[in-house]
Structures are given as C-alpha cells and as structure tokens.
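Deliverable D4.2, example record:
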Amino acid sequence: MSKNCFKPADILLPKDVSYEKFAVVACDQYTSELEYWKRVEKFVGDDMSSLHMIYPEIYLDKKPKNKIKNIHDTMNKYLKDDMFKSFVQKYIYLERKMTDGKIRKGIVGAVDLEEYDYNKGSQTAIRATEETVLERIPPRVKIRNNAALELPHVMLLFDDPKKTVIEKIDVTNCEKAYDFGLMENGGHITGYFLDDKNSEHIEKSLSKLAAKTEMLFAVGDGNHSLAAAKSCYEQLKKKQGEKAKTSPARYALCEIVNLHDDSLVFEPIHRVLTEVDPQNVITELRNFYRLTKKEQEHPIHYITKDDEQTLHLKNPKASLPVGTIQDFIGHYIENHGGKVDYIHGDDVVISLSKAKNTIGFFVPTIHKSQLFDSVIKDGALVRKTFSMGHANEKRFYLEARIILQ
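Output generated by the structure prediction step:
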C-alpha cells in the first residue's frame, strides 16, 4: 500500500521581473538545436532568469569554463539581493494552455525522496517509468551539489481515471500566483496558490488513491533530474545519518499531473537502425524470437527501401512491443554493430528508411491505461517507450525552492 508522499512546499517566485524572460524550457530539450538556445540567450540577456541557473544539455559536451560555479553564484546572488518572494507551505495549481488550445492542469508541490527509487523493480510509491541511464546522473549531481536552489522540470503522473483530484479544484477564492505567455511558442501559463479548502481536498483525495495502489506516482518527465536529487540526498544521509531526514534536500519540487488529463497524448518513439544490412537484421530478428501468427503477440512492423512487413513475435519477457524490439536491437548492435536512432513521426521513419543500410521499426503507441500496470508488473520500461508532448510543451522552470540549510 502506498502513502501520499506529496506535500506543500516553501516556494519562491521571482519578483519585480519579466516572467516571460525568467521562465525557460527544460534543460534536456532542443539538444541538437543550438540556435534555439542562442535565441533564448539573446532574449534574456543579463536580466534575472532561470536560464542563468540551469545547464542546457546542449552544452554538456562543450563544458563551458566555470559553468557550474556561475550557476551557484547566480543563485546565491539572487537570494542575497532579495530577488524572490517566498510563499510558505503552499501548493500551486496551474493551467498550461498549449498552442493547440488544449489545457494541461497540474499542481506544484514537493515529493518525499524517501519514497522514490529509480531502480528497476523498486517497490516505492514513486517509480521511474523508463530505464534510468546511470551515466546521465553524475553531471546533474554536480549541478545540484552545493546549489542553494532547485528549479524543477520534473513531472509526475498519477492514475486517476475518475478525475477525483485536480479536476475538482475550485480556484474562485484563490490568489493568483502568475499569469503570462511563455517564450518560444510555449503557450500560456496561469497559476494559483491553493487555499486551505483546496489543499485539504488534494491531500485527502491523493491519500484515497494511494490506499488503492502500491505505486502512487510514475515519473513522466525529468527522471534523471529526480534521480540526481535522490543521489544528493543519499550522499547527505551518509554524512549526517538520521539528521538528513529533516533537511529540505529530502524533498524535490515537482508538478503532478493526472495521467488521464485530456491534454496528455502518448506518442510512440520509433527506431531506425543504420550502418546495417537490412536483410541480415530481418534474418536475425526471425531467429531471435519465435514467429507466431497470433495477433495477440507483439506486432513489429519494419520498413526498408525494398520491403515492408509486419512480424508477430512472441516474447514472454516483455509485456509491450517496444520491449520486444528494444531487446533485439540491443542484442543485434552488440553482436553485429550498427547504430540506433530514436525517431518521432511515421513520415520521418519512412523517409530515413529509404536510405541504403537502413531499416526502420515502427513502435505501437502505448495506451495510457497500460502505463501503471506495466511499470508495476515489469518494473521500469525500456528507454524511449513513449513521448509525452513536443519540446515546446515540456515544463518550463518557474518555481524555485531553497535546498541548502
């Protein structure tokens, strides 16, 4: 049985600044589009912005000199210069209007890292939806260690098909926290500080959900950032023992969203293998799994410049087709070489697969109702199982919280 591990937080918001310049998209977006980040840098300039407190991943390989030190210095300067307004023990209810008109509803608060484990097969109330790539954690740990503040792009999902939690909130008597347009085609965001009545509703309704399941939250976005927060907290526990449990570092600021929010659309992430012999790939695929004509087995559709076909494969180790094809791809590259690209959009796969020495695999879309059951049954799903929205729809850094005592 899970417990409600989501709590109100001491939240900081910038004051007397342009919110449009302050709020910047998640650092793991536009990782191949340097021009995007250059435009953001030009727009923000030297004004107060979350841009100066994050490390866009496009720069990780370039290792700008003193980047992490500058991030920490900026946080300290903003705090010293009293550039934030503090709101004690609050939830923020927000509505994010996308460019297509859809509205995503969420609540910002803090989750207890004692109840989060990113390892496959974990039994905690908060679990990763996809495999955690361990080598992606240390760079984030370096940033979080000795940082005075955290700014979250983490989004947690909870399974509420009857819409008993967020959808019942009434902000008629709530104070508005912010209301502005997001940069770079990010849509519009409006936030409200929840009053006592709404806060009590959130806690009671989440506790009811928690009593019915062994996993209350699944990480939808930002798992590696949350894993870094967990790693930093574990380091603190080794140093301080039980005292660490009273530290603000025990918690992580995040946004929770109902898995069944109408705006959330799961999109498949396809695979394209390059630098391979397509016919050899198909032969090895047929040998790797037992072929079956049963439609209830996993349908794997491939395309090359000369061929296109659907194979039905039996794989008792995976509950989803994406696991079946990912297991094979890993095996094939290890034994035969080649490279894999993760692709959004059927048309892109079709186009790329027209090239020589290339084969594309279409991955069926995972249905929302499958997510929690699959994670509980199989543990964390394979990497790149699904995508949740486009880059400009990802979470923007806005709220902050002090994590150093």
